[in-house]
Structure prediction request, 294 residues.
Amino acid sequence: MNKNKYIALIIGIVVLALCVCVLVFINFQQKNEIKEIVEQMEFEKEQLEEEYEELAVQFDGYQTPDIHNDSLVELLSQEKQRVQDLLEELRITKVTNARRIAELKKELATVRQVMVGYVQQIDSLDRTNKRLVAENLQVKQQYQEVARQAQQLEEERTQLAEVVSRASMLEITHFQMIPLNKRDRKTTIYNQIQKLQFDYTVGRNITNKPGLKTLYMRITRPDGEVMQKSIDHFFRFENNEIAYSVSKEFEYAGEEISGAMYWAVEEILQIGWYTADFFVDGELIGSFPFQIKQ
Prediction:
């Protein structure tokens, strides 16, 4: 081989070696660039997933029972589900699918914008609810105050009515029991008692309504039984029908009036203390003890 051809061959080999080296370097450079791009895409995908997860947590933070608007609750639930669906899709999307990841990134921006609107509505509703609660509380307090004043007025009216009622109520101002014999004369001998005379005086009271009235006397024996001449002798007192012993009608005109009531002794009188209670207009106007001695 001549010298020129040998030199040309060596030069060709060197050039080929250089070309191979250049190609290997370029390939290595491209692999590094691709690796960096893939790593960047993985990082961006991870960030996007974190943003979706954060948004999902924000949606979970709005509890539907606290939102008193059915339409808003429904829309919020739909968007919440939408975020969950997009997050699941993002997790299974390959990192090299740059186009879909970019679309999911746009979807995230859209959902965020929608959520901003919902948050504004929720805040507005919350402010409105707080205002209404405050107004309702104020109205309730005003109502309670009015009710309290009404109750106080009713109590005062009742007290006044009781005072007026007591003021207008009649009263027995004098009482005396006199045992009588068969000649209607006073006796202290037990075996001669044939009649009991009850002297009384109804006091003066110009506030009492004048007119014909009935005075009931209720005699209670020492054993607690009421003395009666008839089983039909009952009158109304405090929403009950109670027995009486003797009754008498009298005309009352506001001035003091005296009278007497009688009990014919037809039984064996018990020895001991008795009670004579007087009633007019459904009110107890006097209660007096008296004694039968042997």
